[in-house]
Write a structure and sequence with these properties.
Elements: E1 3-14, E2 17-29, E3 34-38, H1 45-53, E4 61-70, E5 73-74, H2 80-89, E6 91-94, H3 98-101, H4 108-120, H5 124-137, H6 143-146, H7 156-168, E7 174-178, H8 186-203, E8 206-210, H9 214-220, E9 223-228, E10 231-237, H10 238-243, H11 248-255, E11 305-308, E12 311-313, H12 318-323
Parallel strand pairs: 3-8, 3-9, 6-7, 7-8
Antiparallel strand pairs: 1-2, 1-4, 4-5, 9-10, 10-12, 11-12
The structure holds adenosine-5'-triphosphate (ATP), iron/sulfur cluster and magnesium ion.
Magnesium ion is lined by residues 45-46, 178.
């Protein structure tokens, strides 16, 4: 397995108390595989990704337990230098907002090229040629002419392509894309997502795609992990989850996607709000919002149960949920 996150716990020590942001996350990504991570705002998607990438703010963050196995090596046991090397060469991250991730005072060519001078010892001239090649590869028109331009001279979609180019530059084996298209216009979103998916296939990279958009996921992901209050509540191959969710929360998320054949009908919304992470409810964290909740849900934390060889659900009533489709 390329990446395996095991029972990861992350907390934030704040003035108001300890926010339990990640509470026993388990997920894995194989070479060439795309894992989509879904869940409402605050469910711990980004914090988990930052822990994998090694860029968590510590303090206030703290990884209190767990393992992050990358090519069978626990990243949490590595020393600073070894860790930095893996982060720089084997993994890359793409963020939502290219403008704040790119350096405004360096040309895009210099920023892409720097990866090759620093990590591959290339001359500046060769690195610039590499930058043009990569810009071509992510289909930035007139790459040769634009390589000397600055981030603000590009449109949002083009900047996102530049971030993708930088992420791919050293041919990492894992890419983490944290809502890579959220800030873009709808038409541009699809183009950027298609490009990312295409390059990922070509280079056989593992991809963790964090998104709110269940519509996008169906086209590009192999499997899905649904997060709620810092836990994975369901994992499944992508097509099975659309046919029949095994967790009421997933079911709620699926019902709240707008559908073309139901235009004009009021959109379903899961009632209530995600819990305050300083005070996660006992039992199943979803119980105050769950239409299927019973007494046991208010006292016992549901274990992540094996629904089939490839699916898991953390619900006491996963069987009933599957049957009730
Ligand atoms: N630097 C920080 N200091 C304190 N708490 C933090 C910090 N970063 C994250 N958290 C806590 O962790 C929780 C989970 O955050 P995370 O960014 O992982 O959510 P997310 O699932 O990525 O949400 P979104 O969809 O909004 O990006 C937050 O609600 C917050 O309580
Ligand atoms: S364990 Fe209970 S409250 Fe939680 S999702 Fe299942 S039915 Fe709902
Ligand atoms: Mg996030």
């Amino acid at each position: 397995m390329l990446l395996e996150v095991r029972d990861l716990h992350v907390e934030f020590h704040t003035r108001d108390g300890v926010a339990k942001a990640v509470n026993g996350v388990n997920y894995s990504v194989a070479e060439g595989e795309t894992l989509a991570v879904l869940g409402e705002s605050g469910s711990g998607k980004s914090v988990t990704a930052q822990a994998v990438m090694g860029i968590l703010d510590m303090p206030p963050g703290k990884i209190s337990s767990g393992e992050i196995l990358f090519k069978d090596q626990d990243l949490l046991k590595l020393k600073g230098e070894e860790r930095r090397k893996i982060r720089g060469q084997e993994m890359a991250m793409i963020f939502q907002d290219a403008l704040s991730s790119l350096n405004p005072v360096l040309s895009v060519g210099e920023q892409i090229g720097e990866l090759f001078t620093v990590h591959r010892g290339m001359s500046r001239k060769d690195a610039k040629a590499k930058a043009v090649e990569l810009m071509d590869r992510v289909r930035i028109p007139a790459a040769k002419e634009r390589v000397g331009q600055y981030p603000h001279q590009f449109s949002g979609g083009m900047r996102q392509r530049i971030m993708i180019a930088m992420a791919l530059a050293l041919e990492p084996s894992l890419i983490i894309a944290d809502e890579p298209t959220t800030a873009l216009d709808v038409t541009v979103q699809a183009q950027v997502m298609d490009l990312l998916a295409e390059l990922q296939r070509e280079l056989n990279m593992g991809l963790i795609l964090i998104t709110h958009d269940l519509g996008v996921v169906a086209d590009v992901a192999d499997k899905i992990a649904v997060m709620y209050a810092g836990r994975i509540v369901e994992t499944s191959p992508v097509h099975e989850i659309y046919k029949a969710p095994a967790h009421p929360y997933t079911k709620g998320l699926l019902q709240s996607i707008p559908r073309l054949d139901q235009k004009g009908q009021e959109l379903y919304a899961i009632k209530g709000l995600p819990p305050n992470l300083l005070r996660i409810p006992p039992g199943c964290a979803f119980n105050p919002r769950c239409p299927m909740a019973q007494d046991v849900c208010r006292t016992d934390v549901p274990p992540l149960a094996q629904v089939s060889e490839t699916r898991q659900s953390a619900c006491h009533f996963w069987k009933e949920t599957l049957d009730a489709r």
